[in-house]
Write a structure and sequence with these properties.
Layout (H helix, E strand, L loop, with lengths): L1 H36 L2 E2 L6 E4 L2 E6 L3 E7 L6 E3 L1 H4 L12 H6 L1 E3 L2 H7 L2 H12 L3 E3 L2 E6 L6 H18 L4 H11 L3 H14 L4 H10 L5 H11 L2 H11 L6 H19 L1 H7 L5 H13 L6 H7 L5 H14 L5 H8 L4 H14 L5 H4 L10 H17 L9 E2 L18 E2 L2
Parallel strand pairs: 9-10
Antiparallel strand pairs: 1-2, 2-3, 3-4, 4-8, 5-6, 7-8
Length: 424
């Protein structure tokens, strides 16, 4: 019994001694780290270091927490588990890898400006270690009470460096720097768009636009042209439109910007070229522009393109032909009315309502019937009504008189001069 008691006391003494040794080692490590960092240990707390915006403390459960205060109050970031995977509030930076791995909220001018290439890399590492930010604070937890002064100092300095960067206020200068130097084209474009939206009249925006007009990426050049809007922008946009090496969607975007900034006359010659291109996207925007400008010189080509199979192009062609207001487009529109895509048929019906003659009524009539009164039904009925109102007596009586008829019950007399009356 005595031997057992002595053994238990010996074990207890050893445990206490070991605990005291660990506590002493912890105090010494944290004291050394505080001295190296130029911070101080809080009185009465062997595992709490503070100074400036940084606080390091040992949590219950023997974890080490690094907290840096001073970030924008509405900035929050973490992984998909911390902030969820779907939110309309997340700010996209334009870096696909970063946007997939880090979910971040906050003011667009803050988030986009602050996340240069090196900061994005640091955030990915912090989030991978379970760190994040919210309510103006950057936090990183290291599991286990850190007793290695070198690791304490290394982690503290990385948190301070990241925190200091995320606390910067010079938004315009940061956005400009990212436009000029970020390695990811979509990130450069994102920063340029924020400059244009938030600080359009600033010197930084003007400098960014002037430099970005020579960017290697056409999407960035289009944004720069939209911001700069000078003769150089016109040349840059025109160059993109005619460059077959560039993606068709980007060329189409350049054409749209060219017309929006400089008017149809500024790109009139390009419209004819664009309508001859094999890419449907480019032909579509050129057709829309020609229709809005009522450029009847493009009528023949637009009618030829009505035979193309792409639905988006067919719909644009129908709208353009209606806006041209030339009855010579009627056969092409009647052909579009026979397509299978409702969007194309609706656009064709509306266009026929604007320019159609009595010949357009017969193919429109079947679309006015049936129990399902959708958009196509309404467009066809409206087109027939418009044609009737517009023609009056001009077609020698070939339109019928509808008496107490069902909706859309219109017929065509077989011979000119005859009258057809539709009754219930």
């Amino acid at each position: 019994m005595i031997v057992a008691t002595l053994l238990a006391l010996t074990v207890m003494v050893l445990v206490i001694a070991k605990s005291n040794a660990r506590a002493r080692a912890t105090r010494e490590a944290w004291s050394a780290a505080a001295k190296e960092l130029g911070l101080w240990i809080s009185p009465g707390a062997a595992t709490r270091i503070a100074g400036g915006a940084l606080t390091i403390y040992g949590e219950s459960g023997s974890n080490t927490m690094y907290v840096f205060a001073g970030l924008p109050w509405d900035m929050a970031f973490g992984g998909t588990i911390a902030l969820g995977s779907v939110s309309r509030d997340f700010v996209a930076i334009g870096d696909p890898d970063f946007d997939a791995r880090v979910k971040i909220r906050g003011g667009v001018e803050d988030v986009v400006a602050l996340l240069d290439a090196s900061t994005r890399k640091a955030l990915v590492e912090v989030v991978a270690r379970g760190g994040g930010a919210g309510w103006g604070k950057l936090s990183l937890r290291s599991f286990g009470l850190e007793r290695d002064p070198d690791r304490l100092v290394e982690t503290a300095r990385s948190v301070m460096a990241l925190g200091n960067h995320l606390s910067q206020q010079a938004r315009k200068k940061l956005l400009l720097a990212n436009v000029l130097g970020d390695p990811v084209a979509a990130v450069r474009a994102r920063n340029l768009s924020v400059l244009a939206e938030k600080f359009r009249d600033s010197d930084e925006a003007k400098r960014a636009a002037g430099t970005a007009l020579g960017d290697s990426d056409p999407a960035v050049r289009v944004l720069a042209a939209d911001l700069e809007r000078g003769d150089r922008s016109k040349r840059v946009l025109s160059g993109i439109v005619v460059d077959a090496r560039i993606d068709a969607q980007q060329r189409a975007a350049a054409f749209e910007r060219l017309v929006a900034i400089f008017g149809y006359a500024g790109g009139k010659g390009l419209a004819a070229q664009a309508l001859e291109q094999p890419e449907a996207a480019l032909r579509r925007v050129a057709a829309v522009a020609a229709g809005e400008a009522q450029d009847t010189a493009q009528l023949e080509r637009l009618c030829e393109l009505a035979r193309e199979e792409q639905p988006a192009l067919g719909e644009a062609i129908a709208v353009a032909l209606g806006r041209l207001g030339d009855p010579r487009a009627e056969p092409a529109l009647i052909a579009l009315l026979a397509r299978t895509e409702d969007g194309v048929r609706i656009a064709a019906a509306r266009a026929l309502g604007l320019i159609g003659t009595v010949r357009a009524v017969e193919p429109l009539l079947p679309l006015t019937k049936g129990l399902l009164h959708g958009d196509l039904h309404a467009a066809a009925r409206d087109a027939v009504r418009r044609i009737q109102e517009r023609l009056g007596n001009a077609e020698a009586g070939r339109l019928s008189v509808v008496a107490d008829s069902p909706a859309g019950a219109v017929s065509i007399a077989d011979d000119p001069g005859k009258l057809s009356i539709v009754k219930e």
